[in-house]
Amino acid sequence: MLIRIPAALNASALAQAQAWLADAAWESGAATAGAQAVQVKHNQQLPVGSELARRLQGLVLGELERHPTFFSAALPKRVLPPMFNRYAGASNRYGNHVDQAVRYVPGSAQRVRTDLSCTLFLSDPADYDGGELVMADTFGEQRVKLAAGDMVLYPGSSVHRVEPVTRGERLASFFWIESMVRSDAQRRLLYEMDVSLMRLRQLHGDSDAAVQLTGTYHNLLRMWADT
Ligand code: NI
What is the distance in A from the centroid of ligand 1 to the CA of 136? Predict the structure, then answer.
């Protein structure tokens, strides 16, 4: 399932991130790619562990922690530190690849299974051409290019690419999540149920039926969650 999270970064956090990135020192993205991906990866990234990357990570994770849709959609167990990339000039594309299934938290022995891939768009789409994130989905090919501050979550299992950026620059944050609920189908069911429950509560308050269904949601989560 592909889930869009509008305003994952609010306007002030987005402006802060853009200001910090304006004078960033970028390096080749090949540094963190696996054997297959490195052959098709032509972009730039912030050095992992740099002071700027750490500041940005704190900003992004702080915003996401407060975002109700993010928690409901991802049911996060472990979140890899967000990374930051740039597509522009000659380093402008990333061909078809699948993300590594297991990654290490940089500088530690902690492994994270990449159930979900996340891309947080940081550039105004009017400021660059191309740069669509294209992923194979059960419904066919999805092309995603979102407003600055918006984020997309998609299954880590999907083949995906970033189309060449032919004008301007495309800045984004990307990272992976190990979910408490490993199965994409189960996670989807829980998310859709949670969204419907929120609507029911808005319409009718905490009716008996809504309370009962909330209990069912939590009992399914209890059945499926690995904490
Ligand atoms: Ni990828």
Answer: 12
pLDDT at 138 > cutoff 90: no
Q: What mean pLDDT do residues 96-102 have?
A: 94
Is the pLDDT higher at 137 or at 86?
Answer: 86
pLDDT number for residue 36: 82
Whole-angstrom distance, CA of residue 153 vs CA of residue 151: 7
CA of 98 to the centre of ligand 1 (A): 6
| Chain CA centroid to CA 171, Å | 14
Dist. CA 94 → ligand 1 center (Å): 8
Average pLDDT for the chain:
95
Distance CA 36, CA 127 (A): 31
| pLDDT tens column, 37-73 | 888 999 999 998 899 999 999 999 999 999 989 999 9
Topology of the domain comprising 3-179: Jelly Rolls (2.60.120)
Q: What is the pLDDT of residue 34?
A: 80
Q: Look at residues 95, 82, 2, 5 and name the one whose alpha carbon lies nearest to residue 42.
A: 95
Q: What distance in angstroms lies between residue 66's CA and the mean position of ligand 1's atoms?
A: 26
> Separation of 219 CA from ligand 1 center, angstroms?
34
